[in-house]
Each structure stands twice: as structure tokens, then as C-alpha cells.
Amino acid sequence: MNNTKQMLRDDALKGKTIVVTGGGSGLGKAMTKYFLELGAHVAITSRNLDKLKNTAKELERETNGKCLPVQCDVREYDQVEAMRDTVIEEFGKVDVLLNNAAGNFISPTERLSHRAFDVILDIVLKGTKNCILAFGKHWIDNKQTNVNVLNIVTTYSWTGSGYVVPSAAAKAGVLAMTRSLAVEWAKYGMRFNAIAPGPFPTKGAWDRLMPGDLQEKFDMSKKVPLKRVGEHQELANLAAYLVSDFSAYVNGEVITIDGGEWLMGAGEFNMLSEITEDQWDDLEKMIRAKKNK
Ligand code: HXC
Ligand code: NAP
Which residues pair with 57 in a beta bridge? Predict the structure, then answer.
């Protein structure tokens, strides 16, 4: 099976302008590329302007699309408003906000300074809040409808996870905002959805979550029932659907794309996947024998 095939038809996002925070690298870049291929105008934003410019140039060359690099630290509300205004000046309007920017690293929580905890909350939770407020108020003031926000969270937004506690707390907050505003701001013609990816290797994430020999020690694909990590195009396909008009009736949803990973950790007896057929024959005999006693 080919997991890197593109899903939607060519002009599926034609006429849409999409802002992707953290769009210069990793999953943000992969989603941006597909949005451009589907005919959208895309603005990519993050702190590192050189990286954004290089990505925009590369993606424009590959897709013949229009990609605007705009520097913006999502932690700073003034910068977010300025970024929004720059994009509107260039493209005339914005239809979709994709909150993808994030910060994260593994650490025992007791080793974190209060500033280290804050830096993650500030990028993920405050940054998403800043973007939602800046774009949401603009859409409300201008009576612009048929717009939507897509937030990238994680599966530990609802389970929590040790060793990434600031990220878990921040992503849980983003998920709560997604569901809350899906209801409150539907009256303004806005939809809010989220995607919870499982492991999709990127340099940004793997450098901070799987440094050194951790990759060999903890093979992420082994934790997934489908026994593989995700392909970036698979995530891009889902994101393109959720920001497009094809998903006009999907609102307040979080869609997990993790090959079943988080449920494998959750199900009480899922460890029994390791039992062989011969062992099952013996176990069945033992269980049936008990019934007759
Ligand atoms: C402990 C650390 C630390 C570490 C930084 N700090 N790294 N503490 N262990 N490994 C502390 C610093 O000492 C400082 O506290 C505070 O955190 C802020 O650090 P700065 O370096 O000044 O912050 P900044 O330059 O803003 O960088 C932010 C960052 C960095 C989050 C630390 O990693 C970054 O820029 N990340 C962006 C990209 C990213 O993280 N991508 C991965 C997303 S993956 P003190 O007290 O010393 O001042 C993801 C996937 C989830 O979210 C799910 C996967 C399955
Ligand atoms: P990544 O390449 O490191 O992406 C993070 C992006 O956020 C970078 O482009 C970074 O750019 C930007 N960013 C960080 N701080 C910022 C700030 N203050 N202001 C603006 N932009 C900022 O990692 P990724 O793996 O692609 O992650 C993308 C998203 O997917 C994140 O939300 C992450 O939590 C989520 N996710 C990833 C995985 C995975 O397996 N990869 C799994 C679950 C969820 P600058 O450094 O230039 O600012």
C-alpha cells in the first residue's frame, strides 16, 4: 500500500488563504506543501525568518503556488497582529488558521526551572490563544464567515504523559479551547477542529524527544499496533480535508492519527498481542479445564 498518495482533488483549496504557524519545518512544512498543491495561498510564520524564506522558495518552486514567509513569535500578541495584517495586505484575506507551532523537550519535571515550564506553555498554549484571538476578532469584526481554525495537539492531550508535562498541560488547554470555541463561535461562521498525531518523525521533535541512542532504545514504531510511524502526507491529507469545505459539518472534533498507538497503551489486556498461537492453545485448554471444576 502507498501511504504517501495525495487524497483530495487538485483545486480543493483554491481561493483559500491559510496561515500555518511553525510552517517552516517538519509537519507544518509538509502540510503547507500539500495546501499549495491544492491551490491555496499559504503564509508560513515562525521566529526564524531565514528558514521561512528558504522553505517558501523551495515550496513555491516545487508547487508553483504562492507562499509568504512572515516572521512572528506567537508568544507576542503584537507580533501576531502584525503578522495577520501583513498576510491580509498580501493576500486580501485569511480563511484558515493552522496552529502548528510548538516547543517541547523531554525532562523529569523536577529538573525544570519555572522558566523552562513557562517557555513551553507560552509557545503552545499562549501562542495558540494569541493567534485565535487575533484572527477570531478580525473575522468577527469583518463579518467574515466560512472560516476555520485547525489546532495540532497530541494524543497525550487527554491521557497526559510523564516527562513532557508542560507540553501535555499546554496541549490539553489547546484541546479545551478547540471544543469550547467550536460551540461559542459557531454563530460567527467559524469552525474549530484539532488533529492529534502519534509519532511522525521530524528533526525538530526527534532532536528533543529522542536524542542520542533513545531512538534505538525505544523504537516508536513498536508502540504502534500497525507497527510503523506516520507518513507526513497522511497527516497532510487529513489536515487538508479538515480545513477544506468538504468538512463543513465537522466542528469541535479532534481526530487521532496514530495507528492505534494511544489505545494500545490504554487497553487492559493489550499486552496479550505478544502471546503466540501455541501459547493460546495451552491457555485455552487451561481456561476450559477450570470451567468443568
Ligand atoms: C531543561 C531546558 C531544556 C532542557 C531549555 N531549557 N532546554 N531545561 N532541559 N532540555 C530551559 C532553559 O534553560 C531556560 O530556562 C528555558 O528552558 C528557556 O530556554 P531557552 O533556550 O531560552 O528558550 P527558547 O530559545 O525560547 O527555546 C524554546 C525551546 C526550544 C522550547 C527550549 O527547544 C525550541 O525552540 N523549540 C521549538 C521547536 C520544538 O520544540 N519542536 C518540537 C515540537 S515536538 P532557564 O531557567 O535556564 O532560564 C512536539 C511533539 C509532541 O510537540 C508529541 C510527539 C509524539
Ligand atoms: P518542528 O519542526 O520543531 O515544528 C515546530 C515549529 O514551531 C518550528 O517550525 C518552529 O519554528 C515553530 N515555533 C517554535 N516556537 C515558536 C514561536 N515562539 N513562535 C512561532 N513559531 C514557533 O516539529 P514538528 O514535529 O513538525 O511539530 C509540529 C507540530 O506537530 C507541533 O504542534 C507538535 O506538537 C505536533 N506534533 C508532532 C508530532 C511528531 O511526531 N512530530 C506528534 C504529535 C504532535 P522556529 O524555531 O523558526 O520558531
Answer: none
Average pLDDT over residues 80-103: 98
Task: Output the residue whose Cα is nearest ligand 2's atom 33.
Answer: 102
Pocket of ligand 2 (CB under 6 A): 21-22, 24-28, 46-48, 51, 73-75, 100-104, 123, 127, 152, 154, 197, 199-200, 202, 204-205
CB-based contact 58:33 (threshold 8 Å): no
Number of structural domains (the chain) is 1
**Domain for residue 6, yes or no?**
no
Q: Is residue 28 a contact partner of residue 20, using CB atoms and an 8 Å limit?
A: yes
Inside any domain, residue 211: yes
Catalytic residues: 156
Tell me the residue range of the domain where 161 lies: 17-291
d(CA 241, CA 96): 12
Q: What are the pLDDT digits (tens) for 201-243?
A: 999 999 999 999 999 999 999 999 999 999 999 999 999 999 9
177 CA from centroid of ligand 1 (Å): 23
